[in-house]
Inverse folding.
């Protein structure tokens, strides 16, 4: 109960931080931005305390099932957003990381938080190395996703003659900005129907529908309409609070360049070593292994075309968005929808 209360407190502070970040942008008040930084810092401390309490109670790192994984990943995301903008104020990025952390804890509450003994396959110090490093890498990928979304958002709002942006690029950016909320709603509906099919999760699936999906869809729709109606005023604010397209593109690259080796070492290399110790083989084309490899290949393609082909801008932003979608399917879809050796992480 105390642990649940601590995570609830962190959710409240993430929400307050998002409100303050939004207010600092709309009202052009730097003091509100500083307050938002303090609030998200308190939320991080609270969530970290909750993770420590669960680690102490369970006797193992809180990364053994879906509830623990989401709470842990949400904390890493909040920390990554806080540190990434330490030297350069990025209120939209920090607000996005606060919302992402808030949603992850909220979705985590749908799954069982009961502490259970580790199954034999998980009783290894490789659990610490494999999962924790992979999650830090995925937190960096989440930051890159937020930055890519911001890139597309800024490309829509800037005046047509301000930067050399083709009509095709604007349409592609608009598709990303408008399509991702629809994609998110569709993913949440799939999760809703999946949970509804399990008798133990019927009540929680209703909470997901009425507490997350419908309010989020309503809010996204309202924001889209307001953004279109007040695009001129929002564009002026964007010039002040959002970096140029080139800077956003470079920040996305930095986030992926940081997360890529962490995910590669933690998610793939350490995972293969652990698989050999647990199951007697390094690679077996298990669905989780396969989708982790697909995630690695997508981000490898991003780095390849950027560093060797000179690609940048909207095309690499779309690759970043695609990479994060694949990452989330590796976390959710494989665990919940596909039978595999990693199915123990589903609930």
């Amino acid at each position: 109960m105390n642990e649940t209360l601590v995570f609830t407190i962190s959710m409240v502070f993430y929400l307050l931080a998002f409100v303050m970040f939004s207010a600092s942008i709309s009202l052009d008040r730097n003091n509100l931005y500083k307050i938002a930084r303090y609030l998200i810092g308190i939320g991080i401390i609270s969530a970290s305390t909750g993770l420590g309490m669960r680690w102490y109670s369970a006797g193992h790192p809180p990364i053994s099932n879906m509830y623990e994984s989401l709470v842990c990943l949400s904390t890493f995301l909040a920390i990554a957003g806080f540190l990434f903008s330490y030297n350069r104020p990025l209120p939209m990025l920090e607000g996005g990381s606060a919302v992402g952390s808030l949603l992850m804890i909220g979705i985590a509450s749908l799954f069982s938080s009961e502490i259970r003994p580790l199954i034999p396959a998980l009783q290894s110090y490789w659990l610490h190395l494999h999962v924790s490093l992979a999650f830090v890498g995925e937190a960096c990928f989440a930051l890159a996703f937020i930055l890519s979304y911001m890139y597309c958002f800024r490309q829509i709002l800037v005046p047509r003659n301000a930067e050399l942006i083709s009509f095709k690029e604007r349409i592609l950016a608009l598709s990303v900005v408008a399509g991702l909320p629809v994609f998110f709603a569709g993913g949440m509906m799939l999760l809703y129907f999946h949970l509804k099919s399990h008798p133990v999760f019927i009540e929680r699936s209703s909470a997901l529908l009425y507490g997350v999906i419908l309010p989020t869809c309503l809010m996204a729709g309202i924001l889209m309409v307001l953004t279109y109606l007040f695009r001129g005023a929002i564009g002026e604010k964007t010039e002040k609070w959002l970096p140029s397209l080139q800077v956003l593109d470079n920040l996305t690259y930095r986030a992926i360049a940081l997360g890529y080796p962490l995910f590669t070492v933690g998610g793939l290399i350490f995972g293969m070593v652990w698989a050999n110790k647990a199951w007697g083989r390094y690679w077996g084309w298990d669905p989780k292994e396969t989708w982790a490899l697909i995630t690695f290949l997508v981000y490898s393609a991003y780095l390849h075309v950027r560093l060797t082909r000179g690609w940048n801008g909207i095309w690499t932003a779309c690759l970043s968005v695609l990479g994060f979608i694949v990452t989330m399917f590796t976390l959710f879809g494989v665990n919940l929808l596909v039978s595999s050796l990693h199915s123990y992480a589903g609930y």
